[in-house]
Structure prediction request, 345 residues.
Amino acid sequence: MRKYLYPVVYFGLGLSSALIVFTQTSLGTSQLQTLMDSKLTFADGSTYTGETDPSGILNGRGLLRWTNGDEYTGNFSNGLFDGQGRYTSPDLYTHVGEYRNGRAHGFGVVTYVTGDKYEGDFVNGDIEGEGTWKSDDGSLYSGMLRRGGVRHGKGEFSLPNGDEYRGEFKDGMMHGVGRYTTADGDIYEGDFVEDSFTGQGSHTSTEGRVVIGQFESWTAKGKSEMTDEEGNRWVGEFDHGFLTGKGTYNGTDGSFYEGGFEYNYYEGKGRYRDAEGNIYEGEFSSGNKHGEGIYTYAEPVDDIKTFTGKWKYGTLIEGDHQFTIHSSGAIAEHAIYNQQEVFRR
Prediction:
């Protein structure tokens, strides 16, 4: 009784990989139609041409063809694929590389009829280790993969839209520390959780705006700081990318604000000092003085240093003194005399 090869091939294990396994099947002499030194023909029509040992076991180089069109050419040892070889399944893929004990094992290249291509390590018939996977959609991954061809460990991933990620992966997803660069030039660097930029990190926009701190689902959430392209700086509690809650603002012109924010605008109670040193402390709405407050001049006006008043969307409508207010600051003040606007800088 002699033993010859029949294939057992498993597909669909992650990233369309194929687990290539070959088993030995005992064949009685009645199943053998023709036996020659260089060619074996099996009952199902499969053929082998190549080297065998004296007992008829496949050893050395040879070509094995199946009736479904699959074929293997390469080295055999004790009836199993072993060493360098090439396996082709016309409707599925072609694998070229190293084999051991009937399975793809070691370095190899598999090209799928879909256009996908993998080049790298195989372990016991499966994609596992370090390699490069190029998909037919244009995406490219280079790095570590766990069994089944799943991205796991450190790697680099280029997406069809031009975005790129370098860093850690887990179970096929961006997970751990990494750097994500969009095709437009935005850069996210820091913690990733299940394909989302979440945790501690930084975001630099193409315009030059930089956000450093806590993120959730690609936007600032929690304690963070934002600096725009001109150098103006916001620090405080962010939500969905906006400063919302308690925070501070430092302007490059010397202006400063401390208090409540909503969607990056002054909101609620706060204290604002303009570039000239004048100070307003009171209520704000949508970034404007709105409600009751106290205004203190850097230099007295008409011998008045401080006054209390009421503002409406940035305009003083009531005050406890009759005088003229002059300001040439970035945020214009109205000049009021007897509660009438007489001058606007």
Remarks:
- The chain has two domains: 1-151, 253-345.
